[in-house]
Write a structure and sequence with these properties.
This is Phenylacetate-CoA ligase. This protein is of the alpha/beta class. Helix content is about 35%, strand content about 25%. The protein is built from 20 helices and 19 strands.
Length: about 525
Amino acid sequence: MNPMGTVEIDRAGGDAAELAARLIPDEELQPWSVEAVPSLPSFASKMRQCERLRGTPYSETPHDVQDALVLRRLQQMVNTMLLNPLWKERLAASDIGGPPATFEEWERIPLSDKTVQRDMFMGDRPGMVVPLSHGGFEVVASGGTSDGLPLEIVYSLRELHDTYRVAGHFMGTYQLREHLRGSDPKWLFTSLADYQMWSSGTMVGGVLQQVPGVNYIGAGPVTGPVFQHMFSYQGPKALMGISAGVAILSDLGAGLSREARESFRVALYGSGVLPHRKRAELRALYPNIAILSYFAATQAETIGLQLRDDSPVLSAVPGLHHIEIVDADGRAVAEGEEGELVVTRLHAHEAPLLRLKLGDRMIRRPALTGPGLKTRRFEFAGRTGDVLHLNDSQYSAALAYNALRDDLRKAAGVDLDEAAHEVQFVNHREYKTITLFASVDDAEGLTHTTAAALGPAGVQRVFAGALARSLSLFNDREATQAAVEKSGYGFRLVFVHRASPEIERTAVGKVPLVRDRG
């Protein structure tokens, strides 16, 4: 038997750490020069080798083996980064002079944010271990959909293509296979565009092209006639777009034949949350559709995938990123607790970036175990900026909306989930006023219904009560009715027509839940 064959590994490989050390041996664990880094075997090759030795797909490999290999890779990344003077200085400031022996030690590494990313990977790009002059890189950019400032990251092309294959195969196996059945051609479209610098359309398209057995079309933003032409193709179809792009598919498909509407099997949406109203409209038009989240970012092309239509839980792609849900000190939260999403790309020899905060909050959910897929799971809880600031107190906007929706349903018979296409809180700090804008079909009618049911002071009372039940992210003892009433804030609920300029949208059509003004 080959010395690296399955039989020997099964006997000796009960120790997951030993297996990880064999997959990434000591001579690869610590590259001694920058010149040696581009020659390091890819992490994807280690995943494939692990599959051969274990005789099972990497995504179905036991958690202890996955964890041991990931920790070994993180150790290799830290050793690599110590070859860069800026990273060495940054790590030394946190008393880190070598690789972490455990995940607990890993959590001592300082978190990175967009500022760190800009400083390290824009301009002269001093954070790259292997300089850009070496060649073989791709620069991926975002125009800044939240803060409006450009943001760039650099990837080795060989490793970027590895991640496309890993993520695409995972999507095909665990997310799309059950929906795209039969002998007819299978189609996978994306309506993402690259007009906001050169960001998501390229990266997500790279993943979708690697889904086995499908025909890929990078359509970009489509008009009704183009959409109807695409859906005239024979066979089951899936489409991925930003939330706003998926939301309009009920309008674009109004003239489709019944056969075409029945062929739409999966709508994949990015960027947070698809409103309840839009889900209902899509399901009414497309009877066989599953609506699933594809959670990604420019810095990490596939972070979490929703595998089941009846559960909002997201699953990580094993071996793609090391994903953490952490508290304010950068430590892992317990299962069921909410924290900040932190991502470390595992396929990054030449230009690694450790522990990057993407600006999202997640709830840590139990890992998926048992037969088949074994992976970490989490649930989207909102953007880090989805916070309502009332003086020195901070309230979760998502929880405030849920509480306000429930109270309005009881008090006025108005269901915001059913009525609203979009909602947005606007906080005028100077004037101490928070307004919830809701875009609806019948703005005048809903305004009259709400006013008649609640009276002149009713909105203020309902709003204050809802905020009192939306626990603060950091100081929940202040989230009381008395604290809200003493804040001096006035609250308004304003119904507006669809596409109203009162609701602020980003350059790519996203609707932030919270906007602060003045």
